Amino acid sequence: MPYVDLHLHSHYSDGQSSPTELIRMAAENDLAAVAICDHDNVDATDEAIAAADRAGIEILTGVELSTVFGQFQDLHLLGYGFDHHHPHLRQALREFQDFRATRNRRIMENINRLLLEEGRKPLDFATIRNRTRGALGRPHVAGELVRLGYVKDMGEAFSRYLHPCNEPKRFLPTPEAISLVLEAGGVPVLAHPYLITKSRGLLDELCQNLVPEGLEGLEAYSSSSTQEETAQLITLARRHGLIVTGGSDFHNLESGLMIGTGWGNLRVPYQCLKDLRRQLAQKKESRVH
After folding, report:
1. Which pLDDT score, from 0 to 100, does residue 149 have?
2. Does residue 54 sit in the same domain as residue 128?
3. For the chain, how far is it from start to end, CA to CA, in angstroms?
4. C-alpha–C-alpha distance, residues 266 and 260, integer Å
5. In terms of domains, do 73 and 140 share one?
6. Cα distance between residue 72 and residue 196, in whole Å
7. Strand partners for 189
8. pTM score
9. How far apart, in whole angstroms, are the C-alpha atoms of residue 99 and residue 213?
10. Cβ(173)–Cβ(68) below 8 Å
11. Do both 22 and 59 map to the same domain?
12. At what angle do helices 227-239 and 200-210 cross, to 10 degrees?
């Protein structure tokens, strides 16, 4: 039975690999299909589509949007199968990227103030920018702190500098994010539900609230869920008439989490892709009629 991985990250957000490298790794792991779901951007899409075509791997357009809903301050929404050239979507994502660039500069300014207080040489934004492929993010700043010997590893970089010097992120209200994906012809899916809350009651309530807003899927297969939790999420999805999707949430090899298998026991069935394609075909048919 073929398997898929519908949640990968490239260096265009906070991953380390290029879209072409991700497709190569997917092929080496015998995956039938993938989706690159970078945070708040679709810059990897055209390269990924071309690489997947050469490798003979199926691919869906994907994105992961940072949203807020009620008590949930960082709820991630996945979008699949949308038109990645859709004007409204591109405009919204451009605004996110502009905000992120400004936020990253403010974070670095905060870190540099702390470094100067410690009698250390400040970080140089241009140097980090030149070392970075794709979108510059906090992991790249952390990596520079490691490279300069200010900390021993990424974990210390975050605990000692990145977390204390953080600046607020920007979030879309979840219903707006859902509408954005729907407007571009895609399928909105709730990402890694058990990272949102471990409460099944709260997840059930969340689905009750978001299905009327247009939510169409639940990421039941995830590196952050046990097999028992995956079964629970599949039951929850069926109860609310949602399709089931899944992916490893792969960012880099250093983490130990792998494409296609997550921490070693993840297998996302091809049926997830079939269900997404069926949902997309129904949307296309309804637009025609």
Report:
1. 96
2. no
3. 35
4. 7
5. no
6. 7
7. 78, 217
8. 0.89
9. 26
10. yes
11. yes
12. 30
Q: Find out whether 79 and 65 touch, Cβ atoms under 8 Å.
A: yes
Share of the chain above pLDDT 70, in %: 99
Q: Are residues 175 and 190 in the same domain?
A: yes
Q: Do 119 and 250 fall within a single domain?
A: no
Of 162, 187, 207, which residue is a domain's last?
162
How high does pLDDT run on average in the chain? 94
pLDDT for the residue 289:
65
Q: Which of 63, 68, 2 is nearest to 30 (CA)?
A: 2
pLDDT band at 1; cut points 50, 70, 90: confident
What does the pLDDT look like over 91-144, one tens digit per residue?
A: 999 998 888 889 989 999 999 999 999 999 999 988 998 887 767 788 889 999
The stretch 66-90 carries a mean pLDDT of 95
Decide: 148 and 112 in contact? Cβ < 8 Å.
no
Same-domain check for residues 183 and 143:
no
Give the total number of structural domains in the chain.
Answer: 2
Same domain, yes or no, for 154 and 207? Answer: no
What phi and psi values does residue 143 have, to the nearest 5 degrees? -60, -35
Which residue did the predictor score with more confidence, 76 or 134? 76
222 is in which domain, residue-wise? 3-92+170-288
Burial of 264 (0-12, 13-18, 19+ CB in 10 A): exposed
Contact (CB, 8 A) for 141 and 105: no
Both 30 and 49 in one domain: the answer is yes
* Digit-coded pLDDT (tens) for 178-193: 999 999 999 999 999 9
Gap between the Cα atoms of 53 and 178, Å rounded: 29
> Which tokens go with 191?
């990402």
What is the spatial distance between Cα 81 and Cα 186, in angstroms, rounded to a whole number? Answer: 5
